[in-house]
Amino acid sequence: MSPTDHPDHDTLRVLIESEIEKTTRRIAEYKSMSGPVSPDDAIGRVSRMDAINNKSVTESALRQAEAKLAGLHTALGRVGQADFGRCKRCGEPIPPGRLVLRPESPYCVRCAR
Predict the structure, then answer these.
(1) Among residues 82, 88, 83, which one has the least CA distance to residue 105?
(2) CA–CA separation, 35 and 99 (whole Å)
(3) For the segment 43-91, what is each residue's pLDDT rounded down to a tens digit?
(4) How far apart are alpha carbons 32 and 26 in whole angstroms?
(5) Could you say which DSSP state residue 86 is in?
(6) What are the residue boundaries of the structural domains of the chain, listed by start?
(7) Which among 20, 24, 73, 87 could bridge 108 via Cys, Cβ 3.0 to 4.6 Å?
(8) What letter does residue 32 receive in the DSSP assignment?
């Protein structure tokens, strides 16, 4: 499906369910990668600092993925409702491309800024 096509609710439901599966897998990966950095590891001071920095980046990605997952579940529950596909702030229709690429976003591009 092209992002400019007007997706129907069944297509969006399948797309959102697929994105939920991908995001759930990504969260599991991030959780496995964000374990504590043990001070007992003999990896050197600079390598340990890199490991701590990488852990912080992974934890940030984990938080973003968890927020996306929550938004996807909310969007999945709203598919089929009269207000689905309308911006929560201005009430205008959300462009089809945005619905396809960011189904978890309840805002149009203008209002999301």
Answers:
(1) 88
(2) 34
(3) 666 687 787 888 899 999 999 999 999 999 999 999 989 889 999 999 9
(4) 10
(5) B
(6) 9-112
(7) 87
(8) H
CA–CA distance from 59 to each of 38, 49, 66, 89, 97 (Å)? 16, 15, 10, 30, 29
Task: Please tell us whether the domain made up of 9-112 is placed in CATH 1.20.120.910.
Answer: yes
Beta strand spans in the chain (E): none
Query: Can you give the pLDDT at residue 3?
Result: 47
- Alpha carbon distances (Å) from 32 to 17, 27, 67: 23, 9, 18
Report the run of H or E that residue 25 belongs to, with start and end.
Answer: helix 9-33
92-102 tens-digit pLDDT: 999 999 999 99
For 18, counting Cβ atoms within 10 Å of its Cβ (0-12 exposed, 13-18 middle, 19+ buried), the class is: exposed
